[in-house]
Amino acid sequence: MRRRKIRLYIWTSIVLMLLSGCEYAQTNNEQASDVQTASTEETSAIDYKEDDEKEKNFDIVEASWEDGYSIVLNTYREDAEKQNEYGLYWDSFDEIPKIPNVEGAMIEMEFYTQFGPFAFMLKDLDGNDIPELFICRATEDFTIGVIYHVFTWQDGKTIELLSNLGYRNGICTICQDNLLAVESSGTSTDYGNTVFYLAKNSTELSVAEQFYAIQSENDHTRSDFFWLSADGEKTPITEEDYVAYKQKYIEQEGLKYIEGTQENIDHLSDLWSH
Fold first, then answer.
1. Hey, where are the domains in the chain?
2. Distance (Å) of CA 203 to CA 33, 200, 216, 234, 235
3. Which of 44, 7, 43, 5 is nearest to 25 (CA)?
4. What's this model's pTM, rounded to 2 decimal places?
5. Cα separation of 228 and 235, whole Å?
6. What is the Cα–Cα distance from 248 to 239, expressed in whole angstroms?
7. Rama region for 201: left / alpha / beta (φ>0; ψ in -120 to 50; rest)
8. Pairing of strands 118-123, 223-229
9. Which of the residues 4, 80, 225, 272 has an alpha carbon 20 to 30 A from that of 51?
10. Among 95, 94, 90, 87, residue whose Cα is nearest residue 115
């Protein structure tokens, strides 16, 4: 339930935003504040389970970002190796491994549905000399990859920045000025883009702007297009405007996808270049 609560599909949030006037793409911290709709009995069970999970998280001491990221990476590495050997081995979502040092986080479901070697990136988004961690799958030559999960580190804890990514859920691109552009789609008429940035020493992403399409009320085969500013100002735009906004954000050149081997995970400091 908690996972469902803090990780909503971005395209679904587009519809909710139009109905309520709220932003459609939310970071995990914003989504965690959603109203709990479970029954009293369900809430008690959920709270008990969450308290247990928090206790386990608090037992893990992270002396450095290398320590914290190593736990995340080894959780993904071990499961990637298990999947390579046995295929999709779990029968229910409850069997998907949790990431033991990150509260409320688990391995991304779409990570299991894509092929390619397990890889990661270290990229300092906010200029504080501590890299953010990107969980990926890559091509065999590690020149192209897909991002599934993003983490940061601060004050002895690894923190989830962005989740629910992948080909189906939302394609994340690292763009100029270290902006993250997430493109998501619900249907052929409902799709959109959210552009995030990480302020220096922040533990949550902020929205720079959003532009999106939603099914027209007058013609269900067509879309209406909108632009949303960082402060929530919504403006109707044309399809040509939408394309122009999208073309502003181009993937950075020279991104370094690192093979997710035990040896590389054990030498994160050597792999991190400022």
1. 2-271
2. 16, 9, 37, 26, 29
3. 7
4. 0.79
5. 6
6. 15
7. left
8. unpaired
9. 80
10. 87
